[in-house]
Write a structure and sequence with these properties.
Order of helices and strands: HEEHHHHHHH
CATH class of one domain: Alpha Beta
Number of strands: 2
Largest sheet: 2 strands, antiparallel
CATH architecture of one domain: Alpha-Beta Complex
CATH topology of one domain: Ribosomal Protein L13p, Chain: A
Helix content: 25-40%
Distance between the termini: 60 Å
CATH superfamily of one domain: Ribosomal protein L13
Mean pLDDT: 87
């Protein structure tokens, strides 16, 4: 059972560049669909195609695919939940963004060292004259 297939993620620019291809069986029936369009039409289809293509091509592949249940949200029928015997745990917790921390949590976070009062980080690009930057580009 796969839940929340509507909220999947893809690396880098694969939403835009990856295409799923199929053939209708008719002349000139070859068709390609971008990943973002396929996911907007049917949120469960991308996981189904990924699992199907990564299974070995033997006679039991279609039987195994019938046993795979994919749901776009968390709503799963109770008769299917009753047959679940195990669950894959999440590998790593999703980290919080910096704006989700409170001021107390930020202050309580251990520091490796404190910067001295007279330490100033200088803007290196502001110190260079513009003539040297143009000469470096030539």
């Amino acid at each position: 059972i796969v839940i929340n297939s509507r909220h999947i993620a893809m690396r880098e620019e694969l939403w835009r560049t990856f295409t799923f291809s199929y053939h209708t069986g008719y002349a000139k029936g070859f068709s390609r669909t971008p990943a973002w369009r396929l996911h907007s039409m049917e949120p469960t289809m991308m996981i189904e195609k990924a699992v199907y293509s990564n299974m070995p091509g033997f006679l039991l592949r279609r039987k195994y695919m019938r046993r795979l249940h994919i749901y776009p949200d968390e709503e799963v029928p109770p008769e299917i939940i009753g047959n679940v015997c195990d669950q894959i745990q999440q590998i790593q917790k999703v980290p919080k963004r910096l704006d989700e921390y409170t001021a107390e949590e930020i202050q309580a976070f251990p520091k490796l060292f404190d910067w001295s009062e007279e330490y100033v980080i200088e803007n290196i690009s502001a110190d260079k004259p513009k003539d040297t930057v143009k000469a470096a580009k030539k």
